[in-house]
Write a structure and sequence with these properties.
The chain is of the alpha/beta class. The chain is built from 15 helices and 10 strands.
Length: 408
């Protein structure tokens, strides 16, 4: 009897251990998976694009801004674009190239042999994020600090090297109202003015390449509104973070068309790019630098990395299953594809001043269109392009005519 009781006790121990291990594994793996699925389903149910009907509305014919028979599409990845390309000897300057879609473009371009000069505000973080990428030089720049832009550009021009591709990929989105030291609204200063100053200063190096491209990161958010020319800096208008972001992206598209017009006779072509809806980008965290405590920024970056690591973008698409291609979320690899395509595709030879999306030239849609794709008419208006060009030159105190004169 005593031996039987001891055997029962011994049998209970493995069972207890089994249940403890099972409970721990459940807490570590099963519960998080259930939570992730629940969140994805919740987002899908509350996302209006999930049940939006297939868009069949009006598009506007244009001899230049129209789709072509591209080899790539919405699902293409940055690495797909560079297959078979040899970019050895090409020098590419990139802002925002150490995170999100910008990093994926940098990885693809560097893999093809290009030399990448990554401009970043946080040098150590940029070096860490790009440590596995060959042929990368990291240089300091802060788009909110005009002196840092002039410092880098002076140093680069002194080197005598050409720039074959300039990618202005950095940006911030939907931030609280903030201003740079000049009093300019922070999103406009970062997304538009910083890149505009950088671009103008680097024109001598772009011209030296004897065939260069400028790629400016825009967004389909431009459909939320044009530019408030009477109050760009929100001094008298009630501030709205998304409206300010949309204004900056519309300005980027307008300036891209004007840049192309002004520089194409120097063999420099300019494009505006919509990378696509990318939920795993670090864009939200970037906008909080200097605005929020570091732990909040770190949490946002961690959250984005979790989305990337656990392929939550793909899960979201599975549950959302939108009818319109433009509403399908992209991974960062897919988000970097159109930037890469704009930078190196032979399909764009001889073209410029265009708005691109999904590795193609976007169609034009009316300003009041509900299309989840395309470029709105106000972002291509020539008078507005001339107007914002003059305003931006005045705001940064740098004029293209002076850059050209100083080169002679």
């Amino acid at each position: 009897m005593k031996e039987k009781k001891e055997k029962k006790k011994m049998n209970k121990k493995p069972r207890l251990l089994f249940w403890i291990v099972g409970l721990v594994l459940g807490l570590v793996f099963v519960v998080p998976i259930i939570l992730i699925l629940a969140v994805c389903i919740f987002i899908a149910v509350n996302d209006p694009t999930t049940n939006a009907p297939l868009f069949v509305g009006e598009t506007i014919d244009d001899p230049n801004q129209h789709a072509i028979d591209s080899r790539f599409d919405h699902k293409s990845k940055a690495m797909d674009i560079v297959g078979g390309l040899d970019l050895t000897g090409k020098i590419i300057v990139v802002t925002g190239g150490h995170s999100g879609t910008g990093r994926e473009a940098v990885r693809a371009l560097a893999r093809s042999g290009a030399t990448i000069i990554a401009l970043a505000r946080d040098i150590e973080r940029a070096k860490k994020n790009l440590k596995d990428v060959p042929n990368v030089e990291v240089e300091y720049i802060d788009l909110l600090e005009p002196e840092s832009i002039d410092g880098f550009t002076a140093k680069f021009l002194e080197s005598g090297r050409p720039i074959h591709i300039l990618i202005n990929s950095a940006g911030i989105m939907n931030t609280p109202l903030g201003r740079d030291k000049r009093g300019y609204e922070r999103q406009f200063s970062t997304n538009v003015l910083g890149h505009f100053q950088l671009t103008l200063r680097l024109i001598p190096a772009l011209e030296k390449a004897n065939g260069a491209r400028i790629v400016n990161l825009a967004s389909r958010a431009h459909r939320e509104g044009s530019i408030n020319f009477d109050d760009i800096n929100y001094e008298n208008t009630e501030y709205n973070g998304m409206k300010a972001y949309a204004q900056s992206k519309t300005a980027i598209i307008l300036l891209s068309t004007k840049l192309d017009e002004m520089l194409k006779d120097k063999a420099i072509r300019a494009f505006a790019v919509h990378p696509g809806p990318v939920p795993s980008t670090d864009l939200w965290a970037a906008g909080m630098v200097g605005q929020a405590p570091q732990y909040k920024i770190d949490l946002m970056r961690f959250g984005a990395s979790v989305v990337r690591t656990l392929h939550i973008t793909e899960l979201l698409n599975f549950f959302r299953n939108p009818a319109n291609v433009g509403d399908i979320y992209k991974t960062v690899q897919q988000g970097g594809a159109t930037t890469t395509w704009a930078a190196v595709s032979n399909e764009l030879n001889g073209k410029g001043g265009l708005y691109l999306e999904d590795c193609n030239i976007a169609v034009i849609v009316p300003n009041d269109s509900g299309a989840p794709f395309g470029v709105r008419q106000w972002a291509l208006d020539k008078e507005d392009a001339d107007h914002i060009w003059t305003i931006c030159e005045d705001m940064i105190g740098v004029k293209l005519v002076d850059i050209i004169k100083s080169k002679r």
